[in-house]
Amino acid sequence: MPAVIWHNQLFKGWQKPDGGRCDFEPTGRNGPVKILATRNIKTSESAVDLSRQQAETFNQAMALFHQREFRRALPLFEAAAQGPASDMAYAARTHVRMCESRLAKIDPETRSFEDNYAQAIAQLNVRAYADAATLLDFSLRQQETDYAHYAAAAARGHLGQIDRAVSHLRRAIQMQPRNRALAMGDPDFSELAKLPALREVLMGN
Prior knowledge:
- The protein is mainly alpha-helical.
- The chain is built from 10 helices and 3 strands; from the N terminus they run βββαααααααααα.
- Strands 1-2-3 form a 3-stranded antiparallel β-sheet.
- Helix 4 packs parallel to helix 6.
- The N and C termini lie far apart (104 Å).
């Protein structure tokens, strides 16, 4: 490329054949030019597009996350985690874990009987009886055990669903007779045992 040098000023913006740009400056009045930097415009534009797409995907995922649509938000966060903006990718990975955690709590199909039962007991301990009852129902469909029926009796009883509590307690005692004595000394049943229907079961009738 012929060079026309006008004093020692910086020339910018030479268009390269490959679509890039080159910045240069003269080394003398009639001397050669020195390349300062080259920039590939196509590559830069592509990076901008990827960053924009990452931001749009992340924002869509956040909107779903705030709507508690964790299952729909999860793949979007996973996609955003692969984007070029490191801060946004980190935030997306954090939200991936948050979605997975929340889905594990509300979707027992992803967990084993033992995990569902343990989560149900944790919910009972904080008096989240509705959540505990739901988890125990699913646990019992996975595997019927006397202790799951026992816990379900407590959960349903505290929800005021006495007929279901009685049914679970009868089955728990049928599968393991020692549950009768256990319930009579269990603080979770101290108030429930005052109800005639449950007391009848505990008394062996």
